[in-house]
Specification:
This protein has 1 helix and 60 strands. The protein is mainly β. Among the domains are: about 140 residues, Immunoglobulin-like, CATH 2.60.40; about 100 residues, Immunoglobulins (Immunoglobulin-like); about 100 residues, Immunoglobulin-like (Sandwich), CATH 2.60.40.10; about 180 residues, no CATH class. The strands form 14 sheets. Strands 27, 28, 30, 31, 33 and 35 form a 6-stranded antiparallel sheet that branches. A 5-stranded antiparallel sheet has the order 1-2-3-7-5. Strands 19-26-25-21-23 form a 5-stranded mixed sheet, with no helix packed on it. The longest helix is centred in the N-terminal third of the chain and has 6 residues. The chain is globular. The N terminus is likely disordered.
C-alpha cells in the first residue's frame, strides 16, 4: 500500500504542510496501529514549527518546536523522525549536533539552536519523510547576533570553565578596573591551551589585556586562561553586573557589584505655607566627583513624619518630577508647601537616593546670607555656595519668620561637622537669639580642609525647625607634594602606570585647585597624558604614563611640580622591563559560614610566566591588612512597602514604601605605616618637634591615634593561615577568616607577592568584607552585630575623629 499520497501544490498551501496517508497498516502517520471506526478512511497530518522568544545570541539559545498532528482530531503522531537543516551551516549549530529528533506522544519534537560568530539571518527547515521517500517540510526564520564563540575545526573542547574576578566590587567612578580570568580544563582537570572563550556582560565595559607584543587574544594559553578587564566607563549607577563566559556548550558566570554613588539633599526642614523654597541635590560618584547631566527623580513619601502620625502636607514639586544635574553634578529643586503637615522629599538617581523631612506651617526658617570673605550670596536662591579659604571666615545668616513677620528673641542652636562657630566678637558659641529682624548670624573658621555641614535648629517650645548648609573649606597654599606610581614596574608596548600626587599645606591639609605640571625624562620613548592636572578636594591630581620599549632599572622619571610654586616638586621613578612572573587574584560569588561567629572568603592566586605557562612551586607571601573602616548602622530597606533586605548605611530612617539613608561613613586605617604599632613622631618623648621627627613634613607633632581612643582603629580584623605554594596549575587558594559582625564594615587590602629565579611579582586587591545573603534577608532578624543594636563595631556617627566610646 502506498504510504503517502502526493498532494498538489495547491493542497499543500491549503493544508499548511499536510501529510496524507492510507488507513490501516503500520500507522506511521495516524499515530494508531490499525483502521479507524469508519473502516479505513484516509487521514492526514500536518507539520508546523514555532520558536522561543527573542533573537539568537550568546545569552539566548533558540528552541524550535515541531508539531505533527492529525487533521481529523488534532492527535499527535508519535515516533516520527524530524530532520532539521540550516540554510547556512556557519550561522548556527544544532544541539544535538545531528540535527534530528523524534516526535513524542504529543507529536512534538524539539531542537536547540546555538549561536556562532557569524551574524545574520537564520532559516531552519524541519522535514518529515515517509517510507516511500515522500516528505513534507516547514521552515522558520530569525536573526542571529553572531556574538558566539568562533567554531574552529580541531580546537580542543573544554569540559569545564571557571570564571574568577580580582574583586567582586567595582567603584562607580570608573577610576579603576578589575581583572576577569576564565580558566578552561578537560575532564581530567588538565589546563587546556587553544580554547576560545567568549566574555559578555549586561553592562560596564570589557577591555582586553595586551601581552608583551601589544596583542590580545580570547584563546587560552598554556595556563588555560583568558584574562579581560571590566570597568564602569562613564556608567556610575550603583548596580550588579553579571559577567558570563562561554566556550561551546560550557559556561560560567559571576556578579560584580558597582557601588559608591550617593545623593545628598540639603535645604530647610520647614516650609512656610505657600512660600517657595530651594533644595540642593548633589549626585556624587564613588570618588566624590559630581556626576553631570544626570536625571534626578523627585517624589514625596506621602507619609507623615510625626509620631503619632499627623496630617500629610501637600507639597508641589517640579511638574516633570525630574531635574538634571549641571556640570558639577548639582541641581536645584523648587518646592512649595500648600497645606499644613509633614512629608518627605525624596530624590533618586543612578540607584541611589536621599531625602529630607519637611513640615509645612506658617514659619519660614531660611539662610539669607553667606559670605566667604570674598563675595556674598543668598543661599535661598543661589544653588552654589562658594568655598572658603582656611585663611578666612565664613559668615552665615539665617532668618526666622512667621506669617512673614520676624520671630524675635528665640534661641537657635548651631552645630558643624568641621571647624569652630563664633559670634561677631570672636567668642565660641553654640546658640544665639534671634534679633529684631528674626536673624541669627554665626562665623565659622576651620584649621583643616574639607566639607562642613552647618546645622541650625530653632525652637519656641512648640515647634522645632531645622536647616542645613554645606560648603567646603580649602587650603590654598602648597607646602609639600608627594608623588607615587602604581605600579612602578611595567612591561613595554603600551603598558600603563598611574602617576598620582597629593599636595598638602604646612599643616598637612589637602590643597585644592592647584595646577600640577608633570615633566617626563625617558629615553625609552614612553609618554604621559595629560601634562597638567588640577588637584581636587582630596589634594590629588594624576596623569598616565604609557610605555614604549624597555628601560634600565628606575630609568624613567616623572617630576610633579606645583605650577605657582615651582620649588615644590617630587619625582617618581619607573622601570619598563620584560617581567618574568605574573601574579593574579580571583574570587567567586560565595562565602562560607564557619560555626556561628565567623565567615570564610576564598581567593585564588594564579602565577604564570611571560608565555602564560603556569608556574609550579612558587612560594607566596600573603597579607591582609585593613584599608579603611565604616561607621553607621544596619537598616531595613523597603520598596513599595515590601521588605527587600538589610543594608549597612549611615544616618538612616525607615519609612514605607521606601527607605532613605545616608551612605555609611568611610574612615581611613589609623595605622599609616602598617606596622601594627600606635606610633608618634615624638621619638624622644619630650613633646617637642625636634629635627628628624617631622616624618610627613607638616610642621606638627603627629600621632596615629586620630580618634583618641588610645589604640589603632580598626586594628587587624581578618586572619589568614597556612603556607601558600602554587600547584601544577600555578594556583593556590587563600582562605580569609573574619568575624561575622565586621561584614560590610571593613575594607581589607589583600597583597600577594612571590619570587622565582630572581624575578618577583606582586598584586593586590581591596574588597569589603562580604556578608552571607541569608543573614540580611529576614526582616525580623537583624544581621550579625557587635554590641548593642545594629550599630557598626566602630560606631554610628559620621565623624571619624570620634571614637565609639565618645558617641554616647
Amino acid at each position: 500500500m502506498q504510504l503517502f499520497r502526493r498532494l498538489s501544490f495547491t493542497m499543500l498551501l491549503m493544508s499548511m504542510m499536510t501529510l496524507v496517508a492510507c488507513g490501516g497498516g503500520d500507522g506511521d502517520l495516524t499515530g494508531g496501529g490499525g483502521d479507524d471506526d469508519t473502516g479505513g478512511a484516509s487521514d492526514s497530518a500536518k507539520i508546523s514549527i514555532s520558536k522561543s522568544e527573542g533573537d539568537l545570541s550568546a545569552t539566548n539559545d533558540i528552541t524550535l518546536s515541531v508539531a505533527l498532528l492529525l487533521n481529523s482530531n488534532g492527535a499527535g503522531v508519535a515516533g516520527k523522525l524530524i530532520t532539521f537543516t540550516l540554510n547556512d551551516p556557519t550561522v548556527a549549530t544544532f544541539d544535538p549536533i545531528t540535527g534530528t529528533a523524534i516526535t513524542d506522544d504529543s507529536g512534538i519534537a524539539t531542537m536547540t539552536v546555538k549561536v556562532t560568530d557569524v551574524a545574520g539571518g537564520v532559516e531552519v527547515t524541519a522535514t518529515v519523510t515517509g517510507s516511500d521517500s515522500d516528505s513534507a517540510s516547514t521552515s522558520i526564520g530569525f536573526t542571529s547576533a553572531g556574538d558566539g564563540v568562533k567554531v574552529v575545526e580541531g580546537e580542543p573542547v573544554a569540559a569545564s570553565i571557571r570564571l574568577f574576578a580580582s574583586s567582586q566590587q567595582l567603584a562607580s567612578s570608573g577610576a579603576q578596573f578589575i581583572e576577569l580570568s576564565a580558566i578552561a580544563k578537560d575532564e581530567s582537570n588538565n589546563l587546556l591551551e587553544g580554547v576560545t572563550i567568549n566574555f559578555s556582560t549586561d553592562s560596564g565595559a570589557l577591555g582586553k589585556i595586551l601581552d608583551e607584543s601589544g596583542d590580545s587574544s580570547d584563546i587560552t594559553g598554556p595556563d588555560g586562561k583568558v584574562v579581560m578587564t571590566l570597568s564602569t566607563q562613564a556608567e556610575p549607577s550603583n548596580r550588579v553586573i553579571t559577567v558570563t563566559v562561554i566556550s561551546g556548550d560550557i559556561s560560567d558566570s559571576l556578579e560584580i557589584e558597582v557601588l559608591g554613588t550617593t545623593l545628598t539633599l540639603t535645604g530647610t526642614t520647614s516650609l512656610a505655607l505657600n512660600d517657595e523654597a530651594i533644595y540642593i541635590v548633589n549626585v556624587l560618584d564613588s570618588d566624590g566627583n559630581g556626576v553631570a547631566k544626570t536625571d534626578v527623580a523627585i517624589s514625596l513619601s506621602g507619609v507623615s513624619t510625626e509620631v503619632p502620625a499627623g496630617n500629610v502636607a501637600e507639597i508641589t514639586i517640579p511638574s516633570s518630577s525630574i531635574v538634571t544635574t549641571d556640570s558639577d553634578g548639582q541641581a536645584t529643586i523648587k518646592v512649595t508647601g500648600t497645606s499644613g503637615g509633614t512629608n518627605s522629599i525624596i530624590v533618586e538617581a543612578l540607584n541611589a537616593s536621599a531625602s529630607q523631612d519637611v513640615s509645612v506651617q506658617s514659619d519660614s526658617f531660611l539662610f539669607t546670607n553667606f559670605n566667604n570673605g570674598v563675595e556674598t550670596v543668598n543661599p535661598s536662591n543661589t544653588p552654589i555656595v562658594p568655598d572658603v579659604s582656611l585663611e578666612k571666615s565664613a559668615l552665615v545668616t539665617l532668618t526666622w519668620q512667621r506669617n512673614s513677620a520676624p520671630v524675635v528673641g528665640k534661641e537657635v542652636t548651631f552645630t558643624t561637622t568641621r571647624g569652630v562657630l563664633k559670634n561677631e566678637i570672636g567668642d565660641i558659641i553654640s546658640e544665639e537669639t534671634t534679633n529684631i529682624n528674626g536673624e541669627v548670624t554665626v562665623y565659622l573658621t576651620s584649621d583643616d580642609a574639607g566639607k562642613a555641614l552647618v546645622t541650625l535648629v530653632g525652637s519656641d517650645g512648640i515647634i522645632e525647625l531645622t536647616n542645613q548648609l554645606e560648603f567646603e573649606f580649602f587650603a590654598d597654599t602648597a607646602s609639600t607634594i608627594k608623588a607615587q606610581a602604581s605600579p612602578n614596574s611595567i612591561g613595554p608596548n603600551k603598558q600603563t602606570s598611574s602617576i598620582s600626587v597629593v599636595v598638602k599645606d604646612v599643616n598637612g591639609n589637602l590643597v585644592k585647585n592647584k595646577k600640577i605640571k608633570f615633566v617626563l625624562d625617558d629615553t625609552s620613548g614612553g609618554e604621559i597624558f595629560p601634562a597638567t592636572s588640577v588637584t581636587d578636594s582630596n589634594g590629588s591630581a594624576s596623569t598616565i604614563y604609557t610605555s614604549n620599549s624597555t628601560s634600565a632599572k628606575d630609568a624613567v622619571s616623572i617630576t610633579a611640580i606645583v605650577e605657582d610654586s615651582p620649588e615644590i616638586s617630587d619625582t617618581v621613578k619607573l622601570t619598563v622591563s620584560d617581567r618574568e612572573l605574573f601574579i593574579s587574584l580571583g574570587t567567586g560569588n560565595y562565602i562560607e559560614e564557619l560555626g556561628t561567629t565567623d565567615y570564610i572568603k576564598e581567593y585564588s592566586i594564579f602565577v604564570t610566566d611571560v608565555d602564560s605557562n603556569a608556574v609550579e612551586n612558587v612560594e607566596l607571601k600573603v597579607s591582609a591588612i585593613p584599608e579603611s573602616y565604616y561607621k553607621g548602622s544596619w537598616t531595613r530597606i523597603y520598596e513599595e512597602e515590601k521588605f527587600v533586605s538589610w543594608a549597612a548605611r549611615g544616618d538612616v530612617f525607615a519609612i514605607k514604601p521606601t527607605t532613605i539613608s545616608a551612605i555609611k561613613k568611610k574612615c581611613s586605617n589609623e595605622d599609616i605605616n602598617f606596622n601594627g604599632i600606635l606610633d608618634t613622631e615624638d621619638i624622644n618623648n619630650d613633646n617637642i618637634l625636634n629635627p628628624g621627627e617631622d616624618v610627613n613634613l607638616n610642621g606638627l607633632l603627629d600621632t596615629e591615634d586620630f580618634n583618641g581612643d588610645d589604640e589603632l582603629t580598626p586594628g587587624n580584623i581578618v586572619s589568614i593561615s597556612g603556607n601558600f605554594v602554587t600547584d601544577s596549575d600555578g594556583r593556590s587558594v587563600i582562605r580569609i577568616n573574619y568575624p561575622q559582625s565586621y561584614a560590610h564594615w571593613l575594607d581589607a587590602k589583600l597583597i600577594v607577592s612571590g619570587k622565582v629565579t630572581g624575578s618577583e611579582g606582586s598584586t593586590q586587591t581591596i574588597f569589603t568584607l562580604p556578608v552571607l545573603n541569608a543573614h540580611i534577608i529576614q526582616e525580623a532578624i537583624s544581621p550579625p552585630s557587635q554590641g548593642i543594636g545594629t550599630t557598626s563595631p566602630f560606631g554610628h556617627s559620621n565623624i571619624c575623629s570620634q571614637s565609639i566610646a565618645d558617641e554616647g
